[in-house]
Amino acid sequence: MPNAAGTELPCVMAVLVLFEFAVFGGLLLGLYYAMFAMGLNVVFGAQRIVNLAHGDLVVLGGYAAWELYETWHISPIVAVVIVLPFAIALGFLVQHFLTPRLMRSADPETLSLILFFGLSQIIEALATIVFGPNERSLPTNAIPVSSLHLLGESYPGIWWVSALVAIPVLGVFLWLLYRTPFGLRVRAVMSSVTEAATAGVNASRVSGLFFGIGFGLAVVAGTVGIFIFGGVSPTAGVALTITAFAIIVFGSLGNPWGTIVAAIIFGVVTQLAQVYLPSWSNLVPYALVILTMLLRPQGLLGRRQRVA
């Protein structure tokens, strides 16, 4: 008769190993999700606009990485540097030519949702025309890295590479926001456009540049995301937007630090769900939004609003 205690011990060890893999893997992916969702929060912070085309910008970044590699064999890591200025310019142009008219309308919030939904559909249609409806992916050796071995576990190389990309990108963004005169003007605009303009801040120019940074973060996330998500397809944008929206709502709309904390928690929870409840893991973003709205509508790091 087998020893019950002897059989239980390997089972417990296996559970602990899976838990360790899920938590540490979730931390690595959480850093990527922070960069991935930050672009959406940046655009919201610039002018209180929810960019429904955010996921489609991530898709564009994935296609850019695929095209640069397939045509010129340029590494997706190098592609980050190449696509970033184009993405920032695109965001600046969108803000400069489209959003001022929205802000002068009677209901700018609703019209902005319609506008960016339309932009999302345009990007999806153009991606389908140019790249076709099928998913595109890159070979694993496009980024020649080996797996990361830690505490007896092996983690996919792209996980720690994505984290190594996200850390300096987020670091530069936070330095720009909190340690530079430009960041001071941005935070003034985020607090109150009217008061910032009264203080002599060119709110339109500041918002345009910050808008561009938000677009840039989304496209940069896409160049790495082609590996994280297993490929890129024209219709992936909606699901990516929902995931990013869930993270920024959980962390607090307009709060960059909230996005980082929420993204790390989201990464860990998602990995735990994929390890222990894989059939339910796709519900994590939706459950996160619902629970946040019910239990803490202002988000993790948001301040509760007083009702007059």
Structural account:
With 308 residues, this protein is mainly alpha-helical. The chain has a domain at 27-136 and 155-235. It is 74% helix and 2% strand. It has helices at 4-47, 54-72, 76-97, 99-103, 108-131, 157-179, 181-191, 193-198, 203-228, 237-251, 256-276, 284-295; strands at 148-150, 153-155. Strand 1 and strand 2 form a beta hairpin. It is globular. The N and C termini lie far apart (72 Å). The mean pLDDT is 88. It is found in: Cell membrane. Belongs to the binding-protein-dependent transport system permease family. LivHM subfamily. It is a multi-pass membrane protein. It comes from Ferrimicrobium acidiphilum.
Count of beta strands: 2
Task: Give the C-alpha Rg.
Answer: 21 Å
Principal-axis shape equals globular
Give the fraction of residues assigned to helices. Answer: over 70%
Proportion of β residues? under 5%
Number of helices: 12
- Catalogue the unreliable spans: none
**How can the largest sheet be summarized?**
2 strands, antiparallel
| Quaternary organisation of the protein chains | single chain
Secondary-structure content class: mainly alpha
Strand order of the largest sheet: 1-2
N-to-C SSE string, H for helix and E for strand: HHHHHEEHHHHHHH
How far the N terminus sits from the C terminus, by CA atoms, comes to 72 Å
Instruction: Quote the average pLDDT.
Output: 88
Quick overview:
The protein has helices at 4-47, 54-72, 76-97, 99-103, 108-131, 157-179, 181-191, 193-198, 203-228, 237-251, 256-276, 284-295, and strands at 148-150, 153-155.
